[in-house]
């Protein structure tokens, strides 16, 4: 019985932790959305870029992975030095340390 109580308490802690993480992520996302909207409005108000031009660029960036799906999806690439796969999350090859090749069309 004590083991079951511990397991339930542990699961409740996990659920609470996940709720806090989700709330924090939502708050950060809300700030990013607000910042992007402010930038778009400023660019349009000052006749630098229109919303249409920005939306066209968003579509072009979205299509870099071949799918117009509203997501930026980095692909696994082969290392130019050792030819092993490099995860999209890594800046360098895990095996030999070679820098990840730049993604075409992306300015760093």
Task: Supply the key terms.
single chain; 108 residues; mainly alpha; two-stranded antiparallel ribbon; 2 helices; 2 strands; flat
Number of helices: 2
Instruction: Please outline the major beta sheet.
Output: 2 strands, antiparallel
Shape descriptor reads flat
Structural class: mainly alpha
Mean pLDDT: 85
Query: Order of strands in the sheet with the most strands?
Result: 1-2
Which sequence of SSEs, written as H and E, runs from N to C?
HHEE
Helix content: 40-55%
Sequence-ordered SSE layout with sheet pairings:
Elements lengths: L1 H44 L5 H12 L14 E2 L6 E2 L22
Antiparallel strand pairs: 1-2
What does this structure look like?
The protein is flat and about 65 Å long. It folds into 2 domains: 2-69; 73-103, no CATH class. The mean pLDDT is 85. β1 (77-78) and β2 form a beta hairpin. It is 52% helix and 4% strand. The chain contains 2 helices and 2 strands, in the order ααββ. The chain is mostly helical. 3% of the residues are buried. It has a two-stranded antiparallel sheet. The protein has helices spanning 2-45, 51-62, and strands at 77-78, 85-86.
Task: Briefly characterize the structure.
The chain has two helices and two strands; from the N terminus they run H-H-E-E. It is mainly alpha-helical.
